[in-house]
Write a structure and sequence with these properties.
single chain, 16 helices, two-stranded antiparallel sheet
């Protein structure tokens, strides 16, 4: 599954902790009333045996958890202040609602969250999405990734796939729902068909129509062959090399890969044609690449952000824990690698803003050349 932030940031806990939403609502673990936040006070209960204070409760929770939550809330507060005007909450909420609907409604979505991440609620998931979006905006600014740089790093492409069987497997029909599939084409037959389709395109045939009728990548075929915006490293090498060598509007000769023969269209689009949402996604991918190349950049980014907003942690133990866990490069990176490895196992198949649609199409588009990452 694709991640909204780079693995190092997942490991740092910046999306795994419950966050405040952009409109100022506290996370669902915080006590609140319709009138606003609760003023707990320092003493929560009195008795002849002694008082129960807020410190007693916090100590019961544990310094690490309190420090984690403090750090997350500080980040959310700072990033909300910095990007409140740039984050389109209406659009984000529409995306989240669409994801939930793809999973069959909120009840089914909540069940899947519980299965993949016990304790996770729909509200907490929504809050994390806001936190993700704020972090995305910050790091796109921090690395000074412009719209032009994002657009130049991708190609909007479509393809027609003509698959073939491995040598010796051509005549083997497979069982599928009690029915037999047609025997797969040989490599030579597939090449002949691909060449014929290319000739039809050269003679003026519509690419989308040919893709929908002939492509063996059934997932993209349903979209007239459309693969969307493709970044480097996302497709198999043969496909990617051919795509990035094409001029805008140009169609490739059949390109062989492990999946079959591809006829690739590099669509002629401009920066102005590219939706802002798509540009933001591309920027996030570029951020991920930069952080993957040098994870310490993420830590420095947060140090700079806290310094910009004059953040000070008044409790010495919290200050020490945050510095060692989040801000000290050696400690934080080691913790991040360990935590991200564990999170990857636990969250396999968890609902995200991207994999809801992918999951529904996975059986049909098994041949699509998605990134092996």
């Amino acid at each position: 599954m694709k991640k909204k932030l780079a693995p190092i940031i997942l490991g740092l806990g910046l999306v795994s902790l419950a966050a405040c939403s952009n409109d100022g609502e506290e996370n669902t673990d915080s006590a609140s009333t319709e009138e606003g936040d609760v003023e707990f006070g320092s003493v929560l209960a009195t008795s002849d045996a002694g008082d129960v204070t807020a410190d007693d409760v916090l100590n019961q929770i544990g310094t690490n958890q309190v420090a984690n939550q403090t750090f997350q809330l500080v980040l959310d507060k700072v990033l909300t202040d910095k990007y409140s005007e740039e984050l389109n909450m209406d659009e984000l909420n529409e995306q989240i609602d669409a994801e939930i609907e793809q999973y069959g409604g909120e009840e089914n979505f909540a069940m899947m969250l519980q299965q993949s991440q016990p304790g996770m609620t729909v509200d907490t998931y929504k809050q994390q999405r806001v936190s993700n979006a704020l972090n995305d905006l910050y790091f796109a600014d921090y690395f000074e990734i412009t719209d032009e740089e994002a657009f130049d790093s991708v190609r909007k492409s479509s393809h027609i796939l003509v698959s073939f069987a491995e040598e010796g497997e051509e005549d083997k029909a497979e069982e599928s729902d009690g029915e037999e599939d047609e025997a797969a084409m040989t490599k030579e037959e597939a090449k002949t068909k691909a060449d014929d389709l290319k000739k039809q395109l050269d003679d003026g045939a519509d690419f989308g129509e040919l893709a929908s009728e002939n492509s063996d990548d059934t997932g993209s075929a349903q979209q007239n062959g459309d693969l969307g915006y493709v970044s480097e490293g996302q497709m198999v090498e043969e496909f990617e090399t051919a795509l990035f060598e094409l001029e805008p509007g140009e169609i490739s000769e059949p390109v062989e890969s492990q999946f079959g023969y591809h006829i690739i269209l590099n669509e002629d689009v401009s920066l102005e044609d590219t939706p802002e949402e798509e540009l933001n996604t591309i920027k996030t991918q570029l951020v991920n690449q930069k952080i993957k190349e040098d994870p310490s950049q993420a830590l420095q980014g947060y140090r700079d952000l806290l310094e910009e907003y004059n953040v000070s942690f008044e409790n010495e133990e919290i200050q020490s824990y945050i510095e060692e866990t989040f801000l000290n490069a050696d400690e934080a990176l080691e913790n991040a690698q360990q935590e991200d490895a564990a999170a990857e196992e636990e969250s396999e198949g968890a609902p995200t803003e991207e994999n809801a649609e992918e999951e529904s199409e996975s059986e049909e588009s098994a041949d699509t050349e998605e990134d092996s990452e």
